[in-house]
Protein: NADH-quinone oxidoreductase subunit F
Organism: Vulgatibacter incomptus
Amino acid sequence: MSQFERVLTKSWAKPGNRSFAGYKANGGYDALPMALKMQPSEIIDTVKASNLRGRGGAGFPTGMKWSFVPKDSPKPKYLCINADESEPGTFKDRLIIEQEPHSLMEGIAIASYALGVHTCYIYIRGEYLEQAEILEKAIAECYEAGIFGKSVLGSGWALDVYVHRGAGAYICGEETALLNSLEGKKGWPRLKPPFPAVVGLFGSPTVVNNVETINTVPTIIKMGAEKYAALGTPKSGGTRLVCVSGHVNKPGVYEIPMTLTFDELIHGKEWCGGIPGGRKVKAVIPGGSSAPVLHHTELDVAAEYEALKAKDNMAGSGAVVVMDDSTCMVRALWRISKFYAEESCGQCTPCREGTPWMERILRKIEEGQGEHKDLALLKSVVNAIAPYPPIGLGTTICALGDAAALPVHSFVDKFREEFEQHINEHRCPFPHPFGILADEGVRS
């Protein structure tokens, strides 16, 4: 793996890289003039050929998503950058903004030109105050340099870019809830179809892309689609960023090849460097807390879309959470379920009623008050929200129901003996407090 070439993060941490001048000195803004010499359709075809897949969670092919925007629409078109990043364990987009905001700006300019967009919004979660300020500064530098404004690099193409801070609701990371929030409405997801590419922001064609997705576009233009695609697998081009947290010696954001397995990522010296204290891995959440958990016997799988899909799992948001053998899986699942119960928008019944129900059952088991019938009840409730497998066919309006259900399915299926031990012994076998104290322990 020593021959792996970083293409997204190679300039990170270089002095001054956050500024316009620093980014340009490191080779930035070379791709934009190249793109402006191309026809918009050529750029879309290039992104298609690169096999770039959306890095926000769904993994949908980016070029194909762009091609759904009607070319002859009389309405204005919009580009929305999803910088909400609210799922537990996710922080890679935050690092992109902190390390190289102008790469995102260059990607916005190229994508807007390709899509026929004159207005772009960057929707960022409310808690990312410092990152919002970084973006505002980068945007101001771009206006000053002629990257944004009435004529992008003198091309005659007008582009305005705005930062919009959300209020910190997880559901606003869902693309249609994000659009509602941008319009000043309650952040509730919309029924699809129609899809945003046709009826999106203010009823106009809109593309919603994740920060990492758009950040990758300048690299594709500079490298060429064929070379970029060759870095990945046949259906997943390039490299990707993962953010690793939990029980590893070196947590952080890593750019990885698509063929890297979770076992290599966790134990490799050039990556996370193993588990503290020489402990063993017990489980890994491969793509954010909404992804089904992997048992430690399942870690010889590449951290990419198709390989995980073959195991009824998903690459998701790239948030890898590692749990060693000291982890109580009941407590971990209870905490995840508590998050989704609190973040459900309440629009549809299975999610509004089911997520608190799951959380209450899990807390009961964790506190040593569970009964064997609770596991059957838990599975009944979770099946009413989203059966598993497959992924993405739940009974709710948006994917939050799936996100809440999939961890419960997988934790109970793969670690059932631990749930039964809690019930049989009327206690949690791991050394941590119960009840209110347990809740306080989680918050501390």
Q: What stands out?
A: The two ends are 39 Å apart (CA to CA). The chain has three domains: 20-231, 239-324, 329-425. Residues 329-425 form a domain with the de novo design (two linked rop proteins) fold (CATH 1.20.1440.230). DSSP finds 18 helices and nine strands in the chain.
